Amino acid sequence: MLYTILLILVPLSLFCRQRTYDHIRENQEAPYVPWFTGTALAPSAVNAPPGHPVAASVTSFSATYGMYEDNWRLRKIETTWAINPFFELFVGVNDLIGIDIYASFISNFKKGQNSTHLQDTIFLLGFQIAKDIPRTWIPDIRFLIQETIPTGNYQKLNPKKLGIDSTGQGSFQTGFNIVAQKLFPMEGNFLLLKWTVGYLFPAPTRVKGLNTYGGGPGTLGKVFPGQTLMLYFSGEYSLNQNLVLAFDSFFEYQGESTFSGKLGSNSSGVKNLVGTPPAIQISVAPQVEYNFSGRSGVIFGVWSTVFGKNSTAFATAIGGYYIAF
Length: 325
Description:
The chain is mainly beta. It has a single domain (2-324), classed as monomeric porin ompg (Porin, Beta Barrel), CATH 2.40.160.40. 4% of the residues lie in helices and 55% in strands. The protein has one helix at residues 2-14; strands at 54-68, 74-92, 97-110, 113-118, 121-130, 140-149, 173-186, 189-202, 205-208, 220-224, 228-238, 243-254, 258-262, 279-291, 296-309, 311-324. It has a twelve-stranded antiparallel barrel with strand order 1-2-3-5-6-7-8-11-12-14-15-16. A three-stranded antiparallel beta sheet has the order 9-10-13, with no helix packed on it. The radius of gyration is 20 Å and the shape is elongated.
């Protein structure tokens, strides 16, 4: 049960991919205008330019191989393999407002079982608070209102699928992200640093039978998912106009999820368990970008957990292509 819910936390954070296009002003003293695709995990600090939507296709390949216990120790588990395509669209309404949409599905494989379902869908409404002004300490600042739509599979699960058919949390989640980034010239090259704070308030959700939060035969009631805190520190360093080294570091905390209702019981008469304890997951993602122009580029990277508590351990390879129209 615990393994099932925390498997969901991994793809949810990958939805929050940054993109940066056409917002870096030319510095006349620099040898080139830097191009950045944006890092793989953190939300963008700038809206898409009005009239120039940005589209992206991203695929990740992951192996979930362990569980961090309540004492932070890693316990090996049967590996779950996953292929996870993402589709992303960024639209600028005007100079101050932008809309980001993230949709995906995932195919999971474990012990001869396989399952393919949609994941939860994310909508972001972004407000540009400030824009980076060269030679000052004023950065890009963007405030985002986030709404997560529960399009993923989360209840009436098949016990034979060993939890891999759980792909969502079943809850409408409303929250916010505050993103700030600053460009620093570095002896002919450029360093772009970004800081992000996000917080989600999930609504209660009704569950029946085996579900993302546990349960089984006879389970019927309401789950109160824990609130989620997300912290990112990210950076990009341009080696030249085309080639960029990048990284994300990511801290995620989800509070305790509780249950109210009928627990039900298994075939032995033992009461089902529903709910999850507080969970922490810390991960890093080094990446390489290649930008064909200021409007398109590719990104490749790896993303893996460093340590955690009541959460999964995973390793993921990421590849994506972005284009601004």
